[in-house]
Amino acid sequence: MNGNSKWRDDAERNKQLMLLLTQHQRRIFSYLYTLVPDRHDAEDLLQETNLVICEKFTEFEPGTDFVAWACQIAWWRVRAARQKFARSKVVFDDAVLAAVAHTAAELRDETDRRHEALEQCLKKLHPRDRELVLTRYEPGSDVAAAARRSGRSLVAAYKALGRIRKLLMDCVSNQLAAEGAS
Asked: Contact at 8 Å (CB) between 75 and 35?
């Protein structure tokens, strides 16, 4: 094997790693956030998990469940960090932590279906309504910022968001029910 062929293999492996990490980052974070009491701790653990995933990616078997593999790494990062969390007011023993992790893994498919349905329902909204909702839920944003950006009063923005949330909830429920019927 010449050096150029090896580079192509490494490049392809790195490309696949970046694709999988990018595609599943939210799911890995959601899993971590179910296991630790603080969002910032979950973000720190996500970074640590990502480093381990990068280091161990040669051990990943293509064609198997990447998220399950990554969440197993995340589980061990949480276990390693438990001493740090022991100073927190809320500390769960290993049995509770294992039960939460198991439940989070079981709910992963349901959550994914809900996210996909929500994406489809957001696309059905009037562009002005979609912009209001997306602006409201941007990191660091609030209703007042979304109202200003959309040209609505604060009261009008609250009313519109209530109406839009109801529409989205009904749309997601109907879409999931339709999927279940087919």
From this structure: yes
Give tens-digit pLDDT for 135-172: 888 878 889 999 999 999 999 999 999 999 999 999 99
Q: Is the pLDDT of residue 8 over 70?
A: no
pLDDT tens per residue, range 14-73 = 888 999 998 899 889 988 888 887 788 889 999 999 999 999 998 998 889 999 999 999
Q: What is the DSSP string of 119-168?
A: HHHHHHS-HHHHHHHHHHTSTT--HHHHHHHHT--HHHHHHHHHHHHHHH
- CATH assignment of 110-182, given 3.30.420, 2.60.40, 1.10.530, 1.10.10? 1.10.10
1-91 CATH fold: Rna Polymerase Sigma Factor; Chain: A (1.10.1740)
Evaluated on CA atoms 89, 93, 99, 102, the torsion sign reads: positive
